[in-house]
Predict the structure.
Amino acid sequence: MTAKVVVACGSGVATSQTVASKVSRLLKEAKVDADVQAVDLKSVDRHLADAAAYITIVRENKPRSVPVINGIAFLTGMGQDQELTKLIEAIKSSGSN
């Protein structure tokens, strides 16, 4: 089963699309099957219901029902390997992959 990963930014059309594209490529290289979706912050709660992980571009303190991954690491490259490892572990723990 393909894991669902949600990436959110303010509009869902710029930063989140960039991160979603990069994460999708990195997961493919790691041979992890995932559907990475970019959404806007206003609709993120609706998309998290069946997600394996949530990649956020903004800092927020709202508790989430899925593991939260730092999306800035995928934009800057700093800490990217650690966040990718967390993401892959979250996907595997979800039983989706």
